[in-house]
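All the exercises in this workshop are built on plain-text protein records. A learned vocabulary of local backbone shapes supplies the integers on the structure line. Once this layout is familiar, the rest of the handout is easier to follow. An example says more than a description, so a record of this kind follows:
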Amino acid sequence: MQPRNSRLNSAALRGAVDLAAVKAAGEAAQKAEQARAERARQAAAAEADGVAPQPAYQLVIDVTEETFETEVVQRSTEVPVVIDFWAEWCGPCKQLSPILEGLAEEYAGAFVLAKIDVDANQLIAQQFGIQGIPAVMAVVAGQLVPLFQGAESAANVRKVLDQLILVAEQRFGISGGAVAPGGEAAEAAGPQRPEDPALAAAHDALDAGDLGGAIQAYRNVLADQPGNTEAKLGLAQAELLKRVEGLDLQAVRAAAAADPKDVGTQLQAADLDLVGGHVEDAFGRLVDTVGRTFGEDRDTARLRLLELFEVIGPEDPRVVAARTALARVLF
């Protein structure tokens, strides 16, 4: 099993959340605070030496296949990175891009806008599964968050950005802090929050591949802290990884295709879909299973779908869409 601090990279993007990075909220928050503390230290040292501090980051950057890892994936541990997929020939892009650039200035460092020309960077566009442009996505703590496709008004884009920034701060402790007109970071680093030892033990067990130990450790945390979101997310991931241990991907998919009414096989296939990064496929499979079954089988499929929602996170657009689809087949 990969460690939980693995991240999306330019060779492994599939347009879905990487489960190895899913639910790294505590670690992301710690890294974000460390980054802020380091920037504050460097600014203080520069000021003491009478040297103008260097900008923490540019608000709008052009990203290529060569710079994607540094400018998007690594940068996303410090600040949400919004990606604008565009092309010179695209009329709607010429309407949307100035809006995004203007909002990047207006939000003063709460997010960074990364512009990717799909014609010049076809590999990235292919890996993100871009079907049409303009398309806007975000990366937060190495996790991909689809936002919207097509031209939108500034008011609608602002609503999306507000939600993104809120999620980045609440789930991962990542906030971009104000940036002065000259590009200098204006934020001050706060004290680092010590990690709960019980939660740290659960994370360590997960990192070590001790899924049974991780599951029990997360349950112990939740017994004392029923509202601990990070523990809930960690437990959901550990239980998922435990369920797929030893499963043969091809055999399970073949069996699921051969008998769509076999609920147990559909559950296994959905788990494997999610672990493989095929989030919409996993959700769609279980929604369809709920729609074609009755009684106990239907309830079993519904509950598994709710468990997978926990793995991805309730605010993810794919979860929101799947909840709507689930409601349609239930009612």
